[in-house]
Amino acid sequence: MNETIQDNKFVELTYKVTDRKSGHVLSTVKFPLGYVHGHNEVLAPSVDAELEGRSAGDVIEVPIDRNRLYGPRDETLVFTDYIENVPEEFRKVGNTILMENDKGETKSLLVTRMDDKTLTIDGNNPLCGREVIFTLKVLTVRDATEEEIEAGGEVGADPDIDGSLVLPI
């Protein structure tokens, strides 16, 4: 009998995020994401709820309204400046710029446009304002060890990351 996802189970899965309107894949993980169900917030609560009771081999689709998670787009977080005012290392579409305010709070800004004279950065989360579909494939479900429960994930394993996390905008 297959084990099912519930609290204290170690779960490995892969997923992709697809824009519902355009059908474009916005994000994908090709290496397994491992976590202990019920012991950390790796996934959105609505995704966790949909995984409850699932088994290895199951593939599920969960629609997510990103407005509920990130709020609507805020156009006051979009800035355009002359390119000569922007350091050379940030002059590439897709680069992330980490900014800090006078209170020490940080915010990630994404370079979204560039031409010969100007560069535009956007402080909105790249997924805000979009309806997306998470497609998850459950690879492993097993009892978590006490160490894994305490840590919220697999202990002692080096991640098998080959740079395959892709977040195209």
Which key phrases capture this entry?
single chain, 169 residues, mainly beta, Chitinase A, domain 3, Thrombin, subunit H, five-stranded antiparallel beta sheet, four-stranded antiparallel beta sheet, 37% strand, elongated, disordered C terminus
Please provide a written account of the structure.
The protein is mainly beta and 169 residues long. It has helices at 45-51, 66-70, 146-151; strands at residues 9-19, 25-28, 33-36, 59-65, 78-82, 96-100, 106-114, 118-122, 131-143. It has two domains: 9-69 and 129-151, Chitinase A, domain 3 (Roll); 74-122, Thrombin, subunit H (Beta Barrel), CATH 2.40.10. The protein is built from three helices and nine strands. Strands 1, 2, 3, 4 and 9 form a five-stranded antiparallel beta sheet that branches. The longest helix is centred in the first third of the chain and has 7 residues, at 45-51. The N and C termini lie far apart (41 Å). Mean pLDDT is 84; it is low at 159-169.
